[in-house]
Design goal:
Layout (H helix, E strand, L loop, with lengths): L1 H10 L11 H9 L8 E3 L11 E2 L1 H4 L9 H7 L4 E3 L9 H25 L2 E2 H8 L8 H17 L3 E3 L8 E4 L5
Parallel strand pairs: 1-3
Antiparallel strand pairs: 1-2, 4-6, 5-6
Length: 177
């Protein structure tokens, strides 16, 4: 039944705004945790012609923004860490965005399924939902689960004592049971 509802929801026209400004920085930080907390620019190397694909919050504080020329970014943040992009150009972004949305919906369903068993912490949900992911990435997965839980608490489907946080216990709300 959940799959039918998911397919119907995906078929309905809708507008979706995804803030992916720091997405590629987050990917680089997963690949190299030494980049955490440092000013990072993804898009190319100093001296190359091109634009900033993603800028960390640390470098954004210096005025660097996505879409800015690498030359201008280097003038604003000469001590930032500059990294090239990976992989080929995405020529069919609609397919990638749909896959991303579908993946997020599958995670949402999995979180609710876990909470149907019993109340749980973010860590317990991650252990149940991310069985196919290296435990080294469970910290990042926990932040993803927390983002889902914040949305589920806001929609009234999930409850917790106090504002949503990593250390809270979550349960299905009375309206969802």
């Amino acid at each position: 039944m959940a799959l039918v509802g998911l397919k119907m929801a995906l078929a309905a026209p809708r507008i979706c705004c995804l803030d992916l400004d720091t997405f590629f920085v987050s990917v680089e930080r997963l690949l190299d945790p030494r980049l955490l907390g440092k000013p990072v620019v993804v898009g190319g190397l100093p001296g190359q012609r091109g634009v900033v694909t993603a800028a960390s919050y640390e470098v954004r504080a210096l005025g660097v923004r996505s879409g800015m020329s690498l030359k201008q970014a280097f003038e604003l943040a000469p001590n930032a860490i500059y990294l090239p992009t990976h992989g080929p150009a995405i020529t069919d972004p609609k397919t990638h965005v749909r896959a991303f949305i579908e993946h997020r919906q599958e995670r949402r369903v999995a979180i609710l399924r876990r909470l149907r068993r019993s109340e749980a912490t973010v860590r317990e949900i991650v252990q149940a939902v991310y069985t196919d992911v290296s435990t080294g990435l469970h910290g990042a997965a926990g932040l993803s689960v927390l983002a889902h839980l914040i949305d589920l608490v806001d929609s009234g489907e999930v409850a917790c004592d106090g504002p949503p946080a990593l250390d809270r216990r979550y349960r299905l709300s009375a309206q969802t049971k």
